[in-house]
Specification:
It is a single chain. The strands form two sheets. The chain has a six-stranded mixed β-sheet, with helices on both faces. The protein has a two-stranded antiparallel ribbon with strand order 1-2. Residues 56-63 have low confidence and may be disordered. The chain has one domain: P-loop containing nucleotide triphosphate hydrolases (Rossmann fold, 3-Layer(aba) Sandwich). Helices cover 36% and strands 15% of the residues. The chain has 299 residues and is α/β, with parallel strands linked by helices. It has seven helices and eight strands; from the N terminus they run ββααβαβββαβαβαα. The protein is globular.
């Protein structure tokens, strides 16, 4: 008699014997599939994607920045003299401009050029700078340091228009760099503790901050800035652009619009050959050396 070994019946895992129908396949949950290693890889991939998008967007914004230097400021501040000195390497005789001047300025050390636009300071035509602002790399607001003590209110009113325009640019546009040029510093006498250029910078900064604070206080108190009496101030009550970080009086280092650089300059007028050599070599007696160096760093 042969004894057969008993083998128990193994049910088909894909068949439900009680129902007589195939069993439903098991569905794995996402949590069981997404292991910790997979989560780390997915997170890193997402971070790399975000960084790539940010880089492309930022590069596009910087690429859209123009190549214009705008010379702005009141009439007789010396803008046209600065332009002629930068272009021809010496100062040409000038008079008050009533039309925009445009020229290519070479930046020797940077081996680049920048298109420079001298916008007249007359109240009726000075707002033409807004037409060039979308293509501006830098804005140089030129102030006559030897006369700003007498016409500080008018100079501040003009600068207020510029600050308003800069802070009103769309977020998609990189704002141009801003420098305030305390020009004609050679007309000031240096002291034992400060050079003529530094004295010019201190004077221009102090007077402009004081006058801009007056305008800011007048607006905050509901008083139109037209009451300050500056020429061409009609319609200025809607101007903005004087917001600062924190509290206290207006200071350029606290201005919400960004960094403001101050430079002291003068135009060399003691002979064309000496002036040309001074500008090209950027020697210590070149009155525009600070401006040239700033532009080359910006380029």
């Amino acid at each position: 008699m042969t004894t057969d070994s008993f083998v128990p019946h193994q049910p088909n895992p894909e068949y439900d014997a009680t129902q007589g129908v195939p069993a439903t396949p098991e569905i794995l949950s996402p949590a069981s599939v997404m292991t910790s290693q997979n989560l780390i890889i997915a997170s890193l991939s997402f971070a790399v994607l975000l960084f790539a998008l940010f880089f492309v967007f930022t590069r596009k914004r910087f690429a859209s920045r123009g190549n214009y230097l705008l010379l702005l400021g009141p009439s007789d501040a010396g803008k046209t003299a600065i332009l002629s000195t930068l272009v021809y390497k010496y100062t040409l005789p000038t008079h008050t401009s009533m039309q925009t001047n445009l020229a290519e300025v070479t930046l020797p050390n940077a081996q680049k050029t920048i298109r420079t636009i001298d916008v007249p300071g007359h109240p009726r035509i000075r707002d033409q700078f807004k037409d060039y602002l979308p293509e501006a790399k830098a804005v140089a607001f030129v102030v006559d340091a030897s006369t700003v003590s007498r016409n500080g209110a008018a100079v501040a009113e003009h600068l207020h228009h510029v600050l308003h325009a800069l802070t009103s640019l769309p977020p998609s546009q990189i704002p141009p760099a801003l420098v305030i040029v305390a020009h004609k510093s050679d007309l000031l006498k240096s002291s034992a503790t400060a050079s003529a250029q530094q004295l010019a910078i201190n004077r221009v900064r102090t007077i402009l901050e004081r006058e801009l604070e007056k305008r800011r206080t007048s607006q905050a108190g509901g008083v139109g800035v037209e009451s300050l009496g500056a020429e061409g101030d009609e319609g200025s009550s809607e101007l903005r652009g004087l917001d600062i970080s924190g509290t206290g009086e207006f200071k350029f280092e606290k201005w919400d619009g960004g960094e403001v650089v101050f430079l002291g300059t003068h135009s060399v007028s003691n002979g064309s050959e000496k002036a040309a050599q001074s500008i090209e070599e950027k020697s210590s007696d070149s009155g525009l050396s600070p401006l040239l160096e700033w532009l080359e760093e910006l380029a």
